[in-house]
Design brief:
The protein is of the alpha/beta class and about 250 residues long. The protein has nine helices and nine strands. A seven-stranded mixed sheet has the order 3-2-1-6-8-9-7, with helices on both faces. Strands 4-5 form a two-stranded antiparallel ribbon. Bound molecules: adenosine-5'-diphosphate and magnesium ion.
Length: about 250
């Protein structure tokens, strides 16, 4: 393939813009929660895999935590369960939320701790860890955990530079569906209180806040439907989606 002079110029521009970011993130750990629509579209899937490999090859340590994606919703629809409530359980696992009926969604848990031993070993070998959000309880049973929560805790225990949560929205949206490019803890509280942030966005925003308050430098909620969303966030001046700072 030969490049026209315009596209060659673009390649050069992209490389020079990316270089300082590559230098900044070399040797740093970045935890990516992979989920939403990016998990079902074939082109996005292979694009995501290539992007993560690229990160590894330029010296960054990516760790992928994967969610159930839309398949969980489809499965619930198939077995005729109330997705909204079950989503609530998955998302909030909140005992204060009253159940309209008892629904068996299998054992669902929360993260009490993560032993980073195996992930650490893989990270510093030539591997890209891909983590399923299944935990083991004190009773020895397996528990499904919302992948956002696992990704957030994983970023904390690994002392990650960044937490990236891919989803099927352009970022955190305001009341007029405009992307909020940056959020602080106080702004998040207000948006939750007035119902602008609800449902599946709640565990994302909560674990993003917990992560940045526990030493992770930045957390990002980004649009997994956009090709190369991860690279755009990492290596461009503009970034994409919503940035959450402590
Ligand atoms: P994922 O598979 O990425 O975890 P979820 O469905 O659990 O997806 O969470 C993302 C969903 O959160 C969005 O599709 C949207 O319906 C919902 N949501 C709630 N509040 C907001 C908000 N303020 N901005 C964007 N999305 C929101
Ligand atoms: Mg979710």
């Amino acid at each position: 393939m030969t490049l026209t002079s315009t596209s060659a110029m673009n390649v050069a521009r992209v490389l020079t813009e990316a270089l300082p970011y590559i230098q900044r993130f070399t040797g740093k750990t970045i935890v990516i929660k992979y989920g939403g629509n990016a998990m079902v579209d074939e082109a996005l899937k292979s694009g995501f895999a290539r992007d993560v490999v690229l990160m590894k090859l330029v010296g960054i340590n990516p760790v992928v935590v994967h969610g159930g994606g839309p398949q969980i919703g489809q499965l619930l629809a198939k077995i005729g369960k109330q997705t909204e409530f079950v989503e609530g359980m998955r998302a909030r696992n909140a005992p204060e939320r009253k159940a309209p009926e008892i629904i068996d969604i299998g054992p669902v848990g929360q993260v009490s701790g993560i032993d980073p031993g195996v992930v650490d070993l893989l990270l510093h070998g030539n591997f890209i860890p891909v983590v399923a959000p299944i935990g083991v309880g004190e009773d020895g049973c397996s528990y499904n955990i919302n992948a956002d929560l696992v990704a957030g805790k994983m970023a904390e225990v690994l002392g990650a530079e960044k937490l990236m949560l891919l989803t099927n929205a352009a970022g955190v949206l305001d009341k007029n569906d405009k992307v909020l490019s940056g959020l602080t803890a106080r702004e998040v509280d207000a948006l939750i209180a007035d119902g602008t942030i609800y449902g599946g966005m709640l565990p994302k925003i909560r674990c993003a806040l917990d992560a940045v308050q526990s030493g992770v430098k930045t957390a990002h909620i980004i649009d997994g439907r956009v090709e190369h969303a991860v690279l755009l966030e990492l290596f461009t001046d503009e970034g994409v989606g919503t940035l959450i700072r402590g």
